[in-house]
Amino acid sequence: MRPSGRKTNVMRAVSLDRNVSKHAEGSCLVKFGDTHVLCTASLEERVPPWLRNGGKGWVTAEYGMLPRSTGGRMRREATSGKQGGRTLEIQRLIGRSLRAVVDLEALGERQITVDCDVIQADGGTRTAAITGAWIALHDCLKWMEERSMVKVERVLKDNVAAVSCGIFAAQPVIDLDYLEDSAAETDANFVMTGTGGIVEIQGTAEGVPFSQAQLLELMELAKNGIADLVALQKVTVSGPL
């Protein structure tokens, strides 16, 4: 039995709330159970120096956890003068995931930065961030389309979403919360597109290695979960801003 009482193939309740920021070109408050992440997309009419005059744009991401997003207050990374390795790894993952479904030439020489700020953490912050970041990116592009800057369907080639899976109490399970994540024998994150393409798989065993058969079980769970997330993304963006 999972601590939450969920079946092995059942995710936490997921919600995607759009247009939650007054100032950002695109925004989404994503909730995977008690994990809440605010994603905001900001447009800049410039690209990094190494991309200037190349005819391509750029999509990148930043990630951070607010001081009381966890049980005890975390020190802001800004006060230490540098970002931690985990933060850098996650924000690079989010950026890679978004760029996997973006036509950078169709974007033009512009940069979109998606900021993912964890308000409350209960496991799976990176997967929730990726799923919500796609909504924020979509709505930023929609904002641009309304101003005759781009066509959303030309820039955004597909959906992308992510979910965690793992082996907990010897059972493959989907969408681990903190209690499961902290005690899992295997923890993996899957990022996939709406058409089923694999963007990234991160998998780690704790103590006992996992088998190829177990990996395939986790992947099947992830595939089904991400299909549900993509369906929710599509319903969410089909309505008015």
Walk me through this protein's architecture.
By secondary structure, the protein is of the alpha+beta class. Helices cover 33% and strands 29% of the residues. Strands 1-2-3-5-4 form a five-stranded mixed sheet. Strands 7-6-8-9 form a four-stranded antiparallel sheet, sandwiched between helices. The radius of gyration is 18 Å and the shape is globular. The protein starts with 13 loop residues before the first strand and ends with a helix. Keywords: Nucleotidyltransferase, RNA-binding, rRNA processing, Transferase, tRNA processing, tRNA-binding. It catalyses: tRNA(n+1) + phosphate = tRNA(n) + a ribonucleoside 5'-diphosphate. This is Ribonuclease PH.
* Residues in β-strands, percent: 25-35%
Which overall shape is indicated by the principal axes computed on the Cα atoms?
A: globular
- Helix fraction, binned, reads 25-40%
The separation of the N and C termini measures 40 Å
Which structural traits does this protein have?
4-stranded antiparallel β-sheet; 29% strand; RNA-binding; transferase; 241 residues; rRNA processing; 5-stranded mixed β-sheet; single chain; alpha+beta
Topology of this protein?
Elements lengths: L13 E5 L7 E7 L2 E10 L13 E8 L11 H4 L4 H15 L4 H4 L3 E10 L4 H21 L6 H4 L4 E9 L2 E4 L3 H4 L4 E8 L4 E8 L6 H27 L3
Parallel strand pairs: 4-5
Antiparallel strand pairs: 1-2, 2-3, 3-5, 6-7, 6-8, 8-9
Helix pairs in contact: 2-4, 4-7
Concise summary:
Homohexameric ring arranged as a trimer of dimers. With 241 residues, the protein is an alpha+beta fold. The protein has seven helices and nine strands.
